[in-house]
C-alpha cells in the first residue's frame, strides 16, 4: 500500500496555520503577537456622556448598537464602571451593554481591555470573519468586590477578524465596556506564520520520504 497519501496529509497538517486562539491575558496576547499596538484608546473621542446610535473612530472601527441600545463614550471619573476603572475614557452603552465593532481593515490579531462591573453579570465577547463565521468567543463574569474587574479579550486567527460583538446580560444596568483596542496592521502576517526551524526539519524530512516513496512506486511499476 502506498504511503504517499499519508505523507502528504502529514505535511499539510504541519504547514497549516492554527485556525484561531483566544486570550484572556494581555501579557500572553502581546507575547504571541508582539507587533500589535494600541490603535484606539478613546481619549480623543467627543462628545462624552452622550448617547449615540453609532460611532466611527479614527482607528477605522465602526461601533453600532445591538438591540436598540445606545453607544456612550464615558468621561474620566464616570460612575459607569467599578472602582478604579474610571480613570480614562472608555466605550460603553446604556442599559444592558450590547454593541458591535466593525473593523475597517480586517486583521489577524485583535484585542481590547474588558471593563466589568460589580454586578453578577455575564459578558460575552465574540469575534467574526467577513463571512459571519464565528472565530472565537470569550465569557466573563462580574464580581462584587472590585478586585477582578479589569480583564482582556483577544484573538489571533488565520482568517482575518472583521468584527466583534460585546454583550452583557443581567437584570439591570451592567456598567461594562471596553478600552485600549490593540491590533496588528491589516495585512500583516501573524508571527510564526512561516514554519519554525523544527517544523522545517520535519517538512524537509517529509519531502525526502515523499521522494523515496515516489521512486519506489516508479520502480514497482
Tell me about this structure.
By secondary structure, the chain is an alpha+beta fold. It has 3 helices and 12 strands, in the order αβαβββββββββββα. Strands 1, 2, 3, 4, 5, 6, 7, 8, 9, 10, 11 and 12 form a 12-stranded antiparallel β-sheet that branches. α1 runs antiparallel to α3. The longest helix has 24 residues, at 197-220. Residues 6-17 and 195-200 have low confidence and may be disordered.
Features:
221 residues; alpha+beta; 19% helix; 12 strands; 3 helices; globular; 12-stranded antiparallel β-sheet
Task: Write down the overall mean pLDDT.
Answer: 78
What is the H/E string?
Answer: HEHEEEEEEEEEEEH
Helix share of residues?
Answer: 10-25%
Instruction: Please indicate the percent range of residues in DSSP E strands (runs of 2 or more).
Output: 35-45%
- Low-pLDDT runs of 5+ residues are 6-17, 195-200
Number of strands: 12
How far is the first residue's CA from the last residue's CA?
Answer: 13 Å
Class derived from helix and strand content: alpha+beta
Number of helices: 3
**What's the overall geometry?**
globular
Main sheet specs: 12 strands, antiparallel
Instruction: Compute the CA-based radius of gyration.
Output: 22 Å
Amino acid at each position: 500500500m502506498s504511503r504517499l497519501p499519508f505523507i502528504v496529509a502529514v505535511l499539510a497538517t504541519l504547514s497549516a496555520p492554527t485556525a484561531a486562539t483566544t486570550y484572556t491575558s494581555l501579557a500572553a496576547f502581546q507575547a504571541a503577537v508582539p507587533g500589535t499596538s494600541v490603535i484606539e484608546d478613546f481619549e480623543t473621542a467627543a462628545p462624552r456622556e452622550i448617547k449615540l446610535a453609532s460611532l466611527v473612530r479614527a482607528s477605522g472601527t465602526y461601533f453600532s448598537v445591538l438591540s436598540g441600545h445606545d453607544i456612550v463614550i464615558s468621561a474620566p471619573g464616570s460612575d459607569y464602571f467599578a472602582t478604579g476603572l474610571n480613570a480614562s475614557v472608555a466605550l460603553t452603552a446604556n442599559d444592558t451593554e450590547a454593541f458591535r465593532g466593525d473593523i475597517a481593515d480586517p486583521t489577524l490579531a485583535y484585542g481590547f481591555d474588558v471593563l466589568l462591573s460589580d454586578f453578577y453579570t455575564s459578558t460575552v465577547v465574540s469575534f467574526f470573519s467577513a463571512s459571519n463565521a464565528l472565530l472565537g468567543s470569550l465569557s466573563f463574569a462580574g464580581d462584587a468586590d472590585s478586585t477582578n474587574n479589569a480583564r482582556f479579550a483577544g484573538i489571533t486567527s488565520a482568517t482575518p477578524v472583521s468584527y466583534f460583538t460585546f454583550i452583557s446580560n443581567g437584570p439591570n444596568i451592567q456598567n461594562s465596556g471596553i478600552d485600549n483596542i490593540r491590533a496588528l496592521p491589516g495585512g500583516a502576517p501573524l508571527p510564526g506564520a512561516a514554519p519554525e526551524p523544527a517544523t522545517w526539519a520535519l517538512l524537509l524530512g517529509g519531502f525526502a520520504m515523499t521522494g523515496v516513496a515516489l521512486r519506489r512506486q516508479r520502480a514497482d511499476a
